[in-house]
Amino acid sequence: MEQIHLTKTQYCSFNKKVVFQITLPIILFTIITLQLVKNISIKTPSNPIISTSYINNNEEQGAPPTESDTRIKKCDLYSGDWIPNMDAPYYTNETCWVIQEHQNCMKYGRPDTEFMKWRWKPNDCELPVFDPIKFFEIVKNKSMAFVGDSVARNQMQSLICLLSRVEHPLDVSTSKDDNFKRWYYQSYNFTLVILWSPYLVKTIENDPNGRTGKTFWGLHLDEADDVWKDEIDKYEYVIVSAGQWFFRPLIYYEKGQFMGCRYCEIDNLTEYSLSFGFRNAFRTAFKAILERESFKGKVYMRTFVPGHFEGGEWDHGGDCLRKRPYKSNEVKVEGETLELYTAQMEEFREGQRLAQQRGLSLQLLDMTQIMLLRPDGHPSTYGRPANLTWPSDCVHWCLPGPIDSWSDFLLLMLD
């Protein structure tokens, strides 16, 4: 490069110009940056129904936000993708003995293992992997109930397996029915139960008002199921969910009166939408819990999780054979799943208003979009001996499997 030689006077003049030329852009850049920061706004998610966020109940009730509240508020936990996690799984079907046969995919010869090696990664933050010791520290001397169907039971068993790295529970059930199991962790004085209630409301099995030759369930949509309603005061944490059973033929009652149906094919009888019974069941459940003066615990609603049958319905050859998760831009919540999800979220928001009036906490475990991306995590035909010809299971989840990530979210909500 050619060198330039300056006199002393030229050098001083040149040096002032250089300083001015360097300083002016810095000042202008600083002013422009501050103005941009002042005016910047956060973009509204393209799909506000799916892109839900955690609501800080402590802040709404006047309490100062905790460190975890601040961390959570900085990002939408439920917008992201599944990424590889070579540290998983954190247990096996040999170290955890509560895995039911039809979710014990490795026992029945599933050849691939990649479905166990993923974790959920939100777009704008990290979701900590479940820490069993931290969980026990939070729930010590407390109790937790899962209210719902077999997927709720699946979730509870996943949690037990994750906790098995620290302690195995004692089975203190008063019934041999797997739908009403009760587990006790002696070192932490912590109790975990499943309360079987697939519709959340009072039901009639084989309703006589149904069509001959077809099994109907009768639902009293304005009456909570006594199975869990009368037990709820005993628990500090209650996780409520429902879903797949609402796809069955149903008869609806209100105030004890016959009012209509779903999938009933009965002449001169009002046929309601799929989401009608589902919506009303959650409305009734939230009221039963949150209006109960003696209930002082925290409630969590887990959203509906769709199955992944391809090539046919569950009873007509449908199966789930994919080996990898979808990316978030490959599939979207739509159809019946969207209908149920929308109804559930609307009732959740109403339930939150009721919770705030009573100074209680109703929080969200939004698993719909996240699990829509995991068609690879179901048992398919690997939940039974090969010589049996039951339909493929594309509703429940292998253990270990994607459902283990639900406890990552739960722990963050508890913290």
UniProtKB/TrEMBL annotation:
Residues 73-126 form the Trichome birefringence-like N-terminal domain. The keyword Chloroplast does not apply. One of its GO terms (cellular component) is membrane. One of its GO terms (molecular function) is O-acetyltransferase activity. It is a single-pass membrane protein. It comes from the Eukaryota. It is found in: Membrane. Residues 127-411 form the Trichome birefringence-like C-terminal domain. Belongs to the PC-esterase family. TBL subfamily. This is Trichome birefringence-like N-terminal domain-containing protein. The gene is LOC110724863.
